[in-house]
Amino acid sequence: METHQIERPWGETVSGSERQRTSSTMEEPICRLTPKKVAIVGGGLVGALNACYFAKRGFDVEVFETREDIRQAKVVKGRSINLALSHRGRQALKHVGMEDKIVSQGIPMHARMIHSTSGKQSPIPYGKKGQFILSVDRANLNKELLTEAEAYPNMKMNFDHKLKDWSPETGLMTFT
Ligand SMILES: Cc1cc2nc3c(=O)[nH]c(=O)nc-3n(C[C@H](O)[C@H](O)[C@H](O)COP(=O)(O)OP(=O)(O)OC[C@H]3O[C@@H](n4cnc5c(N)ncnc54)[C@H](O)[C@@H]3O)c2cc1C
């Protein structure tokens, strides 16, 4: 059993001038003066991507993932079906500089094929002519996101950490 204490962000007092200085655009760190600690539970797609966003904005980030590091694992547990990456997902990746890399590894899917019982095939396009979504290897995307997140100096990854309990009042998190 292991415990970690995180600072409660809503308990923070920020002066007016400091707030003005720190509320800048998405591209700039907002926590230059007093970096706050953020704990992210789950290093899946959302957790790893969010870790990049928080780290990019200057927070001290710790990720706690119950699985072992999937980049080292012989067998990756969890969902294995490929992911269909659309415009929204690409935008999310773009803001952490990963869109081109992931898109280059994807397989374009222009339409889904409907197979009727009579054997007739009817394609239903995913978009207008020339538009497509991308079939992406889910485990690889997760690995790439973890590697990207880990590259930030203000990031710490904790694998084999399962959240058992946490207290919103004290910020105390208990892991097994
Ligand atoms: C069959 C299927 C197909 C899908 N296809 C698509 C698709 O084509 N396109 C698309 O955009 N979305 C798709 N989705 C949705 C997509 O998979 C999810 O939106 C996405 O995986 C959510 O990411 P997540 O990080 O929240 O969850 P997950 O990817 O499940 O990650 C959660 C992580 O948290 C960890 N965890 C869980 N409990 C704890 C704990 N107590 N302590 C520490 N760590 C913990 C897990 O080990 C895991 O690594 C699909 C989902 C399914 C089931």
UniProtKB/TrEMBL annotation:
Presence of the UniProt keyword Flavoprotein in the record: yes
Annotated Gene3D superfamilies: FAD/NAD(P)-binding domain (3.50.50.60)
One GO MF term attached to the UniProt entry: FAD binding
GO biological process, one term: kynurenine metabolic process
Composition bias, Basic and acidic residues: 1-10
Annotated Polar residues bias: 14-26
Residues forming coiled coils: none
Keywords assigned: FAD, Flavoprotein, Monooxygenase, NADP, Oxidoreductase
KW Flavoprotein (keyword) present: yes
InterPro entries per record: FAD-bd, FAD/NAD-bd_sf
Pfam families, per the entry: FAD_binding_3
SUPFAM superfamilies: FAD/NAD(P)-binding domain (SSF51905)
Disordered: region residues: 1-27
Essential cofactor(s): FAD
UniProt-recorded name of the protein: Kynurenine 3-monooxygenase-like
Naturally occurring in which organism (per UniProt): Notothenia coriiceps (black rockcod)
